[in-house]
């Protein structure tokens, strides 16, 4: 799959709407897609073994999207075959009082993946330029000194996020970011299902319905944030998400192509290490 068409080039304001949310790149067959996803997951498993053995690189995957955009399901499916030892998922909710007592990147920094592992952020520090931008009262609750919440705050946060990500990349963390692009109609359909299907009632939240009223403000906040923070070193991908099976395929493909580019190899021993290894083997056999 050509994933490049979903990647946002820095400054490209039209990227979010380049493809419709229901885009499937000509694929129509759900079963074929499921098979392809399965192959993708198997490949991913192998690459992650190498990532882990080499223990130099970390992989950070950021998932953002409106409620019911399907990011949780995608995380579950794409990671289904992966050894849990290699991965850690963090879901970022409204910050606790302890978290609010620190800068907004603090809790993200504490959750970053170690070398040899993959970290999944289900929402992230991007909420601090999205939901917080849509709702100024949340910003007011962040205990910032007056001088730190002037009119340039969003531009400064984009800058700092870029700097934070560049720092991580320079230290061996590869970053890929996904925006699950769901249409307003499809989101409505999924939310209605949460009311009507007893199996899904638990997911229902009055808040999600309220947030729909701010749809355009959210889309603007997403556009601004994505355009300002998509870079060569930490690109955003716009994932058409009205068809869950297609969104999952795109995510699996981006992760796999990213890992393939990382030149992962099983670590080889130096001659000295090899001699030591053989000495221990002889000991074991004696
Ligand atoms: P969910 O992902 O559906 O469990 O919802 C988590 C909620 O926490 C979402 O409504 C987010 O917008 C909200 N949230 C996440 N991070 C922040 C933040 N930094 N400030 C305020 N709300 C946040
Ligand atoms: Mg939700």
Question: Layout of helices and strands, plus pairs?
Answer:
Elements: H1 30-54, E1 58-65, H2 71-78, E2 87-91, H3 97-100, H4 106-109, E3 118-122, H5 131-134, H6 136-140, H7 153-170, E4 173-181, H8 184-196, H9 206-211, H10 215-229, E5 236-240, H11 244-261, H12 271-285
Helix pairs in contact: 1-11, 2-11
The chain binds adenosine monophosphate and magnesium ion.
The site of adenosine monophosphate has 11 residues, from helix 5.
Provide keyphrases for this structure.
globular, five-stranded parallel sheet, alpha/beta, about 290 residues, 5 strands, Rossmann fold, binds magnesium ion, binds adenosine monophosphate
Walk me through the structure.
It is a single chain. The chain is of the alpha/beta class. A 5-stranded parallel β-sheet has the order 2-3-1-4-5, sandwiched between helices. It has a single domain (3-285), classed as Rossmann fold (3-Layer(aba) Sandwich). The chain has helices spanning 30-54, 71-78, 97-100, 106-109, 131-134, 136-140, 153-170, 184-196, 206-211, 215-229, 244-261, 271-285, and strands at 58-65, 87-91, 118-122, 173-181, 236-240. The structure holds adenosine monophosphate (AMP) and magnesium ion. Adenosine monophosphate is lined by residues 67, 92-95, 123, 127-128, 131-132, 138.
